[in-house]
């Protein structure tokens, strides 16, 4: 059995989020939560929130079955690019620099080990 959670429009670049997500892909949920909780990266806060949501979705999906967290693992974890906000910053001599504020969509799928 598996469940998924997504968080859209996260205000960090997809490249920074992928650095964190690559650490937990394929790991057990216990180990993944531990890695994310103690990671110094700012993106790990959002990733931990989505992982906990995916576990909660799995628990709520089938309330009759009693799933142990130690039997769960991160089946899929991927980051897609979200919309980019374009801003202009004044530059010397009347020019302007374009600032691209990137966003991303994070999806995590957890499943039970067979």
Q: What would you call the shape?
A: elongated
What is the number of strand segments? 5
| Strand arrangement in the largest pleated sheet | 1-5-2
Helix content: 25-40%
Beta-strand fraction estimate: 35-45%
C-alpha end-to-end distance: 9 Å
Task: Report low-confidence residues grouped into runs of 5 or more.
Answer: none
Cα-atom radius of gyration: 18 Å
Write the layout of secondary structure elements.
Elements: E1 2-10, H1 14-24, H2 29-37, H3 43-61, E2 72-81, E3 85-90, E4 96-101, E5 104-112
Antiparallel strand pairs: 1-5, 2-5, 3-4
Helix pairs in contact: 2-3
How would you portray this structure in words?
- The protein is α+β, with helices and mostly antiparallel strands and 114 residues long.
- Helix content is 34%, strand content 35%.
- The strands form two sheets. A three-stranded antiparallel beta sheet has the order 1-5-2. A two-stranded antiparallel sheet has the order 3-4.
- β3 (85-90) and β4 (96-101) form a beta hairpin.
- The model has no long low-confidence stretch (mean pLDDT 95).
